[in-house]
């Protein structure tokens, strides 16, 4: 099971990833960003621990149908974001893959020059 410390480490393990606390009314909400854009949103002190992640819309629907721990993004565009409960039966590998997919979706939307600076593998495919 992924805990808060591991979640933070996974999110910050990506090239160019930063953690910010941009909501003055909610100072405990962590946002993990790349290129100034959010790819993960969580309250690391919350119980149960959840994380909101960007997701391809078709995959988002499949994940929600298959796993009760995955629901439409809380206070986010429900077509493109899932909120994932990290308490329960989701395999760690699946959670890590969802975080990486979210990061990749954001980096894919960045200008090519930024992608190159991040040494993002996806830039070589274009």
Summary?
This protein has helices at 4-12, 57-66, 92-108, 112-117, and strands at 18-20, 29-34, 37-43, 50-54, 70-72, 81-85.
Q: Could you characterize the architecture of this molecule?
A:
This protein has 126 residues and is α+β, with helices and mostly antiparallel strands. It contains four helices and six strands. The chain has a single domain (4-118), classed as Aspartate Aminotransferase, domain 1 (Alpha-Beta Complex). It has helices at 4-12, 57-66, 92-108, 112-117, and strands at 18-20, 29-34, 37-43, 50-54, 70-72, 81-85. Strands 1-2-3-4-6-5 form a six-stranded antiparallel sheet. It starts with a helix and ends in a 9-residue tail after the last helix. The model has no long low-confidence stretch (mean pLDDT 93). It comes from Streptomyces gilvosporeus. GO terms for molecular function: DNA binding. Keywords: DNA-binding. It holds the Pfam family YjbR.
Count of all domains: 1
Radius of gyration: 14 Å
What ranges have pLDDT less than 50 throughout 5 or more consecutive residues?
none
The name of the CATH architecture is: Alpha-Beta Complex
For the largest sheet, list the strands in their spatial order. 1-2-3-4-6-5
Give me some keywords for this one:
126 residues; alpha+beta; Aspartate Aminotransferase, domain 1; six-stranded antiparallel sheet; 4 helices; 6 strands; 23% strand
List the helices and strands and how they pair.
Layout: H1 4-12, E1 18-20, E2 29-34, E3 37-43, E4 50-54, H2 57-66, E5 70-72, E6 81-85, H3 92-108, H4 112-117
Antiparallel strand pairs: 1-2, 2-3, 3-4, 4-6, 5-6
